[in-house]
Design a protein that fits this description.
This protein has 352 residues and is mainly beta. The protein has two helices and 32 strands.
């Protein structure tokens, strides 16, 4: 015999006894089926089973709940076929007509969606409701599903920027990847260091190869370079893009950087001869110094051979400086000699 005790919330429990048919399954294992009437009141139900075998007695206790909602049953939508939804709960799967439960999409977090229905809130995997991204604007994305559209913050689907190709970006989310225009994520160039560009957007900050933003060198002026990208122009120090002179010829030089190569005038690099000793000279540029040798000179313009090629440069100033330095040294030597002679005669006079 089994005792069926139903407990109604906030009321005195009523007790009733029902005789159940017992089916033997295996040694020590029996099965009893109990059908709760459709008009049974909502609430928690406890089932107490008492078994006797000779002088031995055992008692078992279990329970269930009858509710008009799915709250507390860890309800999860696992499938939609036509107008019928299959929902998995802690006590098994049930099927409901979508039109009868007024189902609607409330929110999305990661790969899960929260749905509101007349029988309570339930969860669903985004794939189950056919979710896909349709558009992005700033920090908001629009998601289309079988249950309607929803606009959520990009953080809800863990969106992050993975690449930029010209004016288009590729974004990875919990719903998969999508492409959108740079303007839709408000991307801007923060800086360039070596071969990497730092890009700031509504998806956060990311480092990308400079080729991803079509970075190329357009001009050089002294220690600064102007770099054009698909995100706009940026003025940057030559050292930040690993600039170096790869060849020189006449009054122009070939510069190589992580943002490409460029031919510029010597004036753009502030090329000048800063020291000269005989035919050997020291050449200074905004990218460093180098040695050279004068192979021809006409007036103040010298043709100088360097490891990177042959250039022409004005040596007038350095020659004047060299001559002035020589003159200064001669004057100082004469002064020293005069002082020494004077001291010699002064000492000689004292002796006499």
């Amino acid at each position: 015999m089994a005792a069926w005790r139903s407990y109604r919330p906030m009321s005195v429990p009523d007790q009733s006894v029902i005789n159940l048919t017992i089916t033997h399954v295996a040694t020590g294992l029996y099965l009893m089926n109990l059908v709760i009437p459709l008009d049974a009141p909502f609430g928690d139900y406890a089932f107490v089973v008492t078994a006797n075998y000779g002088d031995h007695m055992g008692i078992g206790l279990t329970g269930t709940q009858i509710s008009q909602t799915l709250t507390g049953f860890d309800a999860r939508l696992i499938g939609i076929e036509g107008n019928v939804a299959t929902i998995q709960t802690d006590i098994g799967a049930i099927q409901l007509n979508l039109s009868n439960i007024n189902i609607s999409l409330v929110s999305i977090n990661g790969s899960m969606a929260v749905l509101q229905t007349d029988v309570g809130a339930i969860q669903a995997d985004l794939a189950t409701i056919g979710a896909n991204l349709t558009s992005m604007n700033g920090s908001m994305v629009t998601i289309q599903t079988q249950l309607g559209n929803l606009t959520v913050n990009i953080s809800a689907i863990n969106a992050h920027l993975i690449s930029i190709d010209g004016n288009m970006t590729t974004i990875q989310t919990d719903l998969g990847s999508m492409q959108t225009n740079i303007s839709s994520i408000q991307a801007s160039l923060v800086g360039i260091s070596g071969g990497l560009a730092t890009v700031e957007s509504t998806l956060g900050r990311v480092d990308l190869n400079v080729t991803a933003i079509n970075a190329h060198l357009v001009s050089i002026d002294g220690t600064m370079a102007m770099v054009q990208t698909s995100l706009g122009e940026m003025e940057i120090y030559l050292n930040d893009i690993d600039a170096r002179i790869i060849s020189m010829q006449g009054t122009v030089a070939q510069i190589n950087t992580t943002c490409g190569a460029l031919t510029v005038s010597m004036a753009a690099l502030d090329v000048k001869v800063v020291a000269m000793q005989g035919s050997l000279v020291t050449i200074q540029t905004t990218l460093g110094t180098m040695d050279g040798q004068i192979i021809a000179i006409q007036g103040s313009t010298a043709t100088i051979e360097t490891q990177l090629g042959t250039i022409t440069a004005d040596v007038k100033d350095v020659a004047n400086n060299t001559n002035n330095n020589h003159t200064t040294i001669i004057v100082l030597l004469i002064l020293i000699l005069v002082v020494l002679i004077g001291m010699y005669f002064w000492k000689l006079r004292k002796v006499l």
